[in-house]
Amino acid sequence: MERQKLIESLYRFAEIMVALIAGFAISGVIMWLGGYDPIKAYRAMLGTSILTTDPYNLAMTLSFSAPIMFTAITFAVGVRAGVFNIGAEGQMYVGALGAVLVAAMSLPGPLYLPLAILFGSLLGALWGAIAGVLKAYKGVNEVVSTIMLNWIAFWVVEYTRVDLLPNPRDPSKTIEMPEPGRLPILLKGTELTASIVLAVVVTLLSYYLLWHTVLGYEIRATGMNPRAARYGGINPERAVLWSFIIGGIAAGLAGVCEIAGRPPHYAITTGLSNLFGYGFDGITVSLIGANHPLGIIPAAIFVGGLTAGARGMQIVAGVPLEMVKAVQGVIIIALAVPGLLRLLKTRLTRGGG
Amino acid sequence: MKSGLKRALSKTAALLIVVFVVLAAGAALFLLRGGPAETTTTSAPAIPKKIAVVYDIGGRGDLSFNDMAYLGAKRAADEFGLELVEVQSKSESDYLPNLRTLARSGEYLLIVAVGFLMTDAVNQTAQEYPDQLFAIIDGYIPDKPNVLSVLFKEHEGSALVGALAAMVAANYGCSAVGVVLGMEIPVLYKFEAGYYWGIRYGEQVYKQHTGQDVSLNVLWTYTGAFNDPAKGKTATQAQLAQGACVVYNVAGATGLGIFEAVEEKAKQEGKDMGPPFAIGVDADQDYIKPGFIVASMMKRVDVGVYTAVKRALDYYQKKIDKFGGILELGLKEGGVAISKLEDLETFLELGIQAGTVKEAEKQQIIDKVKAMREAIPSWIWEEVDKLAETLKTNPDVAVDGLKFSDIAAKIPLDSDEIKQIRQQLGVPTG
C-alpha cells in the first residue's frame, strides 16, 4: 500500500516535470518565432519572481499568490464533492462588495476588518449556496449556473460601484477601506500584506476540514460515489451544498483581501478591473495542485510568480505584454493538463455523475 | 486512523518533495546560466540613459491615447539618445509593482505613467522614491516636486467637435448626436462638458446660417472599458437606432467598435461615406475608417510626453530648477486641436506601424477623407475654425446662458458638477 503510494507520487512528480518542460519548450518556440530571446525572457521572468533573493520580488510573488490560493480552494473543495464549481469569480466579487459595504459604514476602527471578513465571507457563501441549492436539490448543472451567477454578481457589484457607493472624489472607484480596516503590510515598501497569511491559514483549514472532519469525509465520499455515500448513510445533497458554501467562503475572502489588503486602491475599481480573473486563475491553480490544499500552496506561489515575473519579462527582456500572456498561458495550460485529464476521466467513467 | 494519518503525512511529504525538487532543478539550471539577470553596477552616470513608459490596463494598440504616448516617448528617446522601456499592466494590481520595480532600479531618467487610473500608485511611489522623476498623463498630483502632472484641456477640443457634430447632424436632418465613453473617470467629464456645450453652440450657429431651429437629442453611454471594442459597437448601434448620426469616440480602443458600427450602418444603407459619422479621439483617427470619421479631437499626448522628457533632461542639466507641477496643454499650446486634412499624413504612420493600414492605400485614404470633407458645406468647417479662435481669445462666449469659461473654472469636475452641466445644456442627466 505504502509502496503503491510512493509509485503514484513519483508518477505525479514525473507528470509535473514533463508538463513543465513541455510548457516552457512550447512557449520558448513561440517567443523564438516572435523574435524574442526565450532564455533571456525566462531568466527575467523567474529571476524577478521566484528564483531570486530580492525580498521585494519575493514579496510581490507572494502578494499575487494570495487571491488565487483562496479561489483555488473554492474549485478544489468542489471537485472533492464531485462538482465543477467555477463560480469563484462571482463569489469573490460579492465578497469584495461585502468588504466595501462595511467600509462605507462609520464604525469604531478595530471593527472594520473583522466585520469585513465576516460580511464578505457571508456574501460569498450565500452566492455559492445559490448554485449549491440548485445543484443539490434541483439537479441544475453547476457549470451553467455558476457562470450565469458570475455575471449577475459582476453587474450587481458594478451597479453598486456606480450608483450606491462611488467614491465622491473619484467615481471610477468605490469608497475606500478606511485605514484602520486595512490588512497590515508585512514588508515595508512592498505590496505584501497579511492576505497571504490568511490565505495560507484558510488553505490549511480546508485541508483539515476535508481530511479530518466528518463533513469533509462526507464531501469526499459524495465526490467519489454519491450512491455509495447515500448507501453508507451520508446525505449527498447536503454534502454538495456544503462544498458550495465552503467554496463561497474562500472566494468571498479573496474578495475581502483584495479590498482590505491591496495597496494603493483599497476599493473596487471601475469594471471590477482589480478583481477580474482571479476566480478563473484559481481553477488552474487548483488543477496544477492536484485539487489538494497542500498542492495548491506551491501551485499558487508558482502562478503568482508568473504574474509577478510579467514585469521582469517586459522590463529586462523587452517582451511585450501580449507575448508574456501567451507564454504564461501555455505554461499554465501545460501544467493543468494532467489534472484536467484525470478529472475528466473520472467524470466520464462514472457516466457524468 | 493511525495509518490514515501516516498516509496523509507521506502524501504531504511527497508533494513538498516535488515542489522542492522543481525549485532546486530550476535554480540549478538558472545558476548554470550565470545567476539572475542582475543589472550591472557600473559607476552611476550623472544622467540616467533610460526612460520608461507605463501603460494602464487600456494598453497599446488603441490607435489613440496609449499609442500617442508611445509616439511622444519614441520621438524623445530618438532625439535625446535615450533607451525607451515600455511596461503594460494586466490589471489594476499591476500599477504599483510596475512603478516600484522601475523606480527602485534607479536607472530611469523619467518614468511616465500614462493614464489617470495610475494616480494613486504614482502618488505613493513618488513619495517612496523622492529622487526619481515621474510624469503622469491626465492625473492630478500638484504637491510633489518629483511629479509632473500633464493635463489637457479636452473641453476645448471637445467643444469644437461638438459644434461640428451639431452642424453636420442638422445639415443631414438627423434628430440626435451621441458620445460613447470608456470608464467613468473625471477626465472624461471634461470631454462630455465641452462636447455638450459645443453641440448647443453649433445649433445656434446653424440657425444663424440657415434660419432653421434645431434642437438635437444628446445621447451618452459609459461602456466601462477602454479596451473592449465589442462594447463600443453595441453602445453605438443603440445610439444610431435612436437617431444619432454623429457619435463621438471617447473610449480608447473601445472606440474602434464605434467606427465599425458607424461604417456598418452606412454600408447597410448602401453608402460608402457618412452619415452616420463617428468622431475620432486623441490621435487623428480619420484614416481608420476613411469617409466615416468626420474629424478627430486630437489630444496630443505625444506632445505631453515629449515635453515631460525634455523637462526632465533640462532639470538634470540644471537648466531649470523645478521639475514637478502642472503642465496644462490646451488649444493655445497645441495640446488639443481638431484634425485637419494635413494631419493625416503623420498619423497614417501610426496605422501603418500597427499593421491596420497598408502603405499602398495611403493616397486612396487621403483622397477619400478629402472627398468626405468636401461633401460637407464649407461654412461649417469655417465656423469650427472660428470657434477655435474664439475660445483662445474670448472664453466668455456663452450658450444657453452658460459661459465656456464657467465650465473651465469648475475643472476638475466631479459627478455632481457634470450632472449639473448636463442639466443646464439639456442633456439627460442619467
Describe the structure.
The complex is a heterodimer of chains A (353) and B (430). With 353 residues, chain A is mainly α. Chain A has a domain at 65-309. Helix content of chain A is 73%, strand content 2%. Chain A has helices at 2-33, 38-47, 55-80, 88-103, 112-138, 142-164, 195-212, 214-224, 226-231, 236-260, 278-288, 293-315, 321-349, and strands at residues 166-167, 170-174. A two-stranded antiparallel ribbon of chain A has the order 1-2. In chain A, a hairpin with a 2-residue loop joins β1 and β2 (170-174). The longest helix of chain A has 32 residues, at 2-33. The relative contact order of chain A is 0.20. The model of chain A has no long low-confidence stretch (mean pLDDT 93). Chain B has 430 residues and is an alpha/beta fold. Chain B folds into 2 domains: 50-153 and 303-329, Rossmann fold (3-Layer(aba) Sandwich), CATH 3.40.50.2300; 155-298 and 337-424, 3-Layer(aba) Sandwich (Rossmann fold). Chain B has helices spanning 2-32, 65-80, 95-105, 119-128, 154-171, 186-210, 229-241, 255-268, 301-316, 344-354, 362-375, 378-393, 404-410, 415-424; strands at residues 50-55, 83-87, 108-114, 134-137, 147-152, 176-181, 217-222, 244-250, 277-282, 293-299, 325-329, 336-338, 398-399, 402-403. Chain B has a 6-stranded parallel sheet with strand order 2-1-3-4-5-11, with helices on both faces. The longest helix of chain B has 31 residues, at 2-32. In chain B, 55% of the residues are buried. Chains A and B meet through α1, α2, α3, β2 and α12 of A and α1, β2, α3 and α4 of B.
